[in-house]
Design a protein that fits this description.
By secondary structure, this protein is mainly β. It has helices at residues 2-13, 77-81, and strands at 20-30, 33-36, 47-53, 56-61, 67-75, 84-90, 94-101, 104-105, 118-126.
């Protein structure tokens, strides 16, 4: 019986258990350039870079995941008051965020230049190990 239990323990321990990895950040359009805010009050987690085109905002991660658990985009009170709704397509190494007002996608470089307005992002992934 002891040999059997030892075998089961060794067998189970040989499988790698995926660990959750988070992406956390506050994004801001600073005069046409989207960035993850990194200052005394905000600190991004696992965000390598942020870029944008007229059709969306791309957030690149510092890792490549094996599975997407969740990815959420929230707007701050200013964008919310303007009717902004945002969502994301999350992949294993980046997420593409798109925002709309009244059902029409915005120009992500020009239309989102609202001083001190933010998008909040949170994602959970398996680490790919």
């Amino acid at each position: 019986m002891r040999v059997f239990v030892l075998f089961i323990c060794l067998f189970v321990s040989s499988f790698a258990v995926a660990q959750n990895v988070e992406v956390i950040g506050v994004l801001r359009n600073n005069s046409g350039t989207w960035e993850a805010i990194d200052n005394s009050g905000h600190s991004p987690v696992n965000i390598e870079s942020v870029s944008a085109t007229t059709s969306g905002i791309t957030v690149n991660f510092t890792f490549t995941a094996s599975k997407v658990r969740t990815f959420i985009v929230g707007v701050d009170e200013t964008y919310a008051g303007m009717g902004y709704v945002c969502g994301a397509s999350a992949g294993f190494d980046n997420a593409i965020i798109k925002c709309a007002v009244s059902g029409t996608y915005i120009n992500h470089i020009i239309d989102s230049q609202v001083p001190y307005s933010n998008l909040w992002i949170y994602g959970v992934f398996d680490d790919g190990q």
